[in-house]
Amino acid sequence: MRAILPDFKIDIEYSDGNIPDLFREKKELAYCAVKQIEDTHKILREFLISTDPIEATLIAERFDRDFAKTLTMPEIFDSNLYYKSKRFLEQVEFLKNDELLKPFLKLKRDIKNNVNEFLVSNLSSVGLNSVHMIEIRYNASTFETLIVENCILNFDSSVIKNYCEFINCNEGNINLQINVGLNLRNQDPILLNECCLLSIIEKIYGLKYFAA
Fold first, then answer.
1. CA-to-CA separations, 35 to 46, 47, 59, 138, in angstroms, rounded
2. Tens of pLDDT, residues 92-130
3. DSSP code of 125?
4. End-to-end CA distance of the chain
């Protein structure tokens, strides 16, 4: 049930969810339905080939008890899965056509590693009111020449409306701030939140292909 075209396994951060997982969930529903259909087919066939009305009646009673009130068909049609998969494949194809898929994936890994290394090295600087400022610079044409600058500021972080906010975004230069002090409150690891990484990667992709 995990079988899926290789392109959908590419490790791109994607806001619409993990396509392989969504696809597998629908397959699992279909598999359960197939098992139920096989079981009902078996008992109905026993009823059909029976030549003994008494035996057949007992078979029918078993069918009513086990299946008549519980036989259901799953809703495996999912327009969301269709459009999510289309959008995901479109993203992969855009990057492949521009020969940017590998640099894009490397950029994602390098941003994550750079930020996490900084946070691990500066854990003692993080307090409840700490804000993590990040500037990301890269070659907008090739997704290479990455420079990530980090700093921890301590002030009333309540002025930040959201956990992660973009301050300035241009192709090749992204500035954001993260209310990293919340990680201490929630006792989370002091690492780059996956949702923040998703937002960063989506921003980079959107600036490349959809910026006016």
1. 17, 19, 19, 52
2. 999 999 999 999 999 999 999 999 999 999 988 898 888
3. G
4. 41
% of the chain beyond a pLDDT of 90: 52
**d(C-alpha 178, C-alpha 62), whole Å:** 61
Q: pLDDT tens for residues 159-198?
A: 677 889 999 999 999 999 999 988 887 767 789 988 899 9
Return the structure tokens found at 166.
């973009």
H or E stretch covering 45: helix 19-49
Q: Which two tokens stand for residue 116?
A: 């996490």
Beta carbons within 8 Å of 204's beta carbon, 6+ residues apart: 104, 107, 138, 143, 174
CB 194: neighbour CB atoms within 10 A?
A: 10
Cα(38)–Cα(178) distance, integer angstroms: 53
What's at 68, amino acid-wise? A
DSSP SS3 for 137: strand
Q: Measured between alpha carbons, how far is 27 from 22 in angstroms, rounded to an integer? A: 9
* 21-59 burial code (b ≥16 CB/10 A, e <16): ebbbebeeeeeeeeebeeebeeeeeeeeeeeeeeeeeeb
Q: How far is CA 22 from CA 27, 65, 76, 134, in A?
A: 9, 33, 11, 32
| 3-class DSSP state of 176 | strand
Give, in degrees to the nearest 5, the angle at Cα 201 between 105 and 88.
75
Find residue 150's DSSP bridge partners: 134
